[in-house]
Amino acid sequence: MTRTAVILFNLGGPDRPDAIQPFLANLFNDPAIIGLPWPFRPILANLISHRRQKQAREIYDQIGGKSPLLEQTWDQARALQQALNDEHARVFVAMRYWHPMAEEVVGQVKEFAPDRVVLLPLYPQHSTTTTASSVREWKRAARAAGLNVPTHTVCCYPTEPGLIAAQAKLVNEALEKAADKPVRLLFSAHGLPEKIIKEGDPYQWQVEQTSSAVMDAVGRPELDWQVCYQSRVGPLSWIGPSTDDEIRRAGEESLGVVIIPIAFVSEHSETLVELDIEYAELAQKAGVKTYIRVPAVKTQPAFIKGLADIVGAAFVRNDDPASNTGSRLCPADRAKCPCRQV
């Protein structure tokens, strides 16, 4: 029988307070985040991580001093393992900026001795700063370890039916809580500098596709909704509109807010702190009387089934990398989309 290794990629997060600074150093040392050449990039990354660790520690202190991302990713891995229902398939977890990182997991995969590998990011929307970075690091580590087996990369799945169904279910549950109160749905995604999008990164376009597909699945065309972006840092111009500005606008228009973390499939500091605490406080100050946060899809059965369907179809098609459909999704001007097949 064919032995399949499925690698679930995620960002990673500090698992204890003293891991915060090295986690940040790994993040800012990624050339996809800071494009300076070596040795200037690691020097700058070390400087930034030391300057930001106090603020980051205050954020993580609000959620128990560490990120819950690894535990939740393992929950998803176990659920996917069960959904695959294949004793010859094994699901592994690889984090980009904190343990277990690619080098560690490659060794585990090599010991498993698969006949094929599926690289499956837990980023539904492709970006050069997330999926591309994780895949590049995995392939580097695999080459170094001599892991040379057929590998299929899933670059994106922004409108995968299971993802959309799971998210729509959670949105509808939130709307039931809102009852007949007037609300605006805010699909909030992590922002990116405008220059990255102008260089052809498909992320913003794919976020918009996901949001539109969820609204179609919700099936209430009268609803008011908006895509927006959170977590802006630094002096660069970022894509918008910003989530905080949209919360203020809702308050000015006497609307409540139902906020959906549309680009996050797990809970972490940007949902548990930024959305649940900081933006909730902002909403109160802005006069937003109804503020409801939709949870991430996590291990929603439809989402996990969607991931299993992606794995099942991965080697039916020969295109690599490819979206979950096996064909190119993005328009031609999204040149950084890796699935160039038409």
Explained architecture:
The protein has 342 residues and is an alpha/beta fold. The chain folds into two domains: 4-157 and 302-313, Rossmann fold, CATH 3.40.50.1400; 161-293, Rossmann fold (3-Layer(aba) Sandwich). It is 44% helix and 14% strand. The protein contains eleven helices and eight strands. The protein has helices at residues 20-28, 40-61, 69-84, 102-112, 131-145, 161-178, 194-198, 203-218, 243-252, 269-285, 301-313, and strands at residues 4-10, 89-95, 116-121, 151-153, 183-190, 224-230, 256-261, 291-293. The strands form two sheets. The chain has a four-stranded parallel β-sheet with strand order 2-1-3-4, with helices on both faces. The protein has a four-stranded parallel β-sheet with strand order 6-5-7-8, with helices on both faces. β3, α5 (131-145) and β4 (151-153) form a beta-alpha-beta unit. α1 (20-28) packs across α2, α3 (69-84) packs across α11 and α6 packs across α8 (203-218). The protein is globular. The mean pLDDT is 94.
